[in-house]
Amino acid sequence: MTIAVTGATGHLGRLVIAKLKEKVAPSDIVALVRDPARAADLGVEARAADYEKPETLEKALAGVDRLLLVSSNAIGQRAVQHRNVIDAAKKAGVKEIVYTSLLHADTSPLTVLAEEHVATEAALKASGIPHVILRNGWYTENYTGSVPGAVQAGVFAGSAGEGRISSATRADYAEAAAVVLAGEGHAGKVYELAGDDAYTLAGLAAEISKQTGKDIPYRNLPQAEYAAVLKGVGLPEGLAEAIALFDVGASQDGLFDDGHQLSTLIGRPTTPLADAVAAALKA
To answer: pTM to 2 decimals?
Structure first.
């Protein structure tokens, strides 16, 4: 069985490839990337594939049995990009698609993100190709990436209020994807994947304070004010506004789940927040 992974040189894709190599022969894995030269270190076959260039996709998917469609990061363009991949997969005879969606996509208050995932899930259903939906929750790194800046500034800012966040690390989600890709009996299932233990951003700030020995409080800001802070530290306007909007969704428990489907799937507890904070501080 040949397994292909899109976005294979991205943060998640690289981890999925590494986990897959522990379960199947590297010769059975294909990395789908815009620039195959960037995938030389993956140790698997690399093929050129671009979500926005349909003419590259059918050729790249030739002989592929199972495909991991890693969702694009191009918000506003993803539904079309994903449909290009699905259409090419159908033409190429791909037997199963595994898709990385969003936690509780059909009911999520993170509407800007959710709408495109819901559209992709609908396109998969319409395609008739057997598929698995991995509704990934938030990556812990989405927040711990701000840890060094918070330590420097002496405060962790956000707009998530008291919202509970059931995040997990990229490595946790990558392992789940590898389990599904290398296993059997998952077709037709929708997995709501999230970390075992929820925290608030105040709790995250407390963990940073504990590990650094410094007082790093959490400061909750109105959405517009938080977006302005993000723009002030150099983020593009669109990205800053999107992050602030996602935090508002988090304040409504849009990133919370206590079903423990992720830890059940990977057969171990998800990575504790303390470990992720320690890794961010070390980095």
So the answer is: 0.96
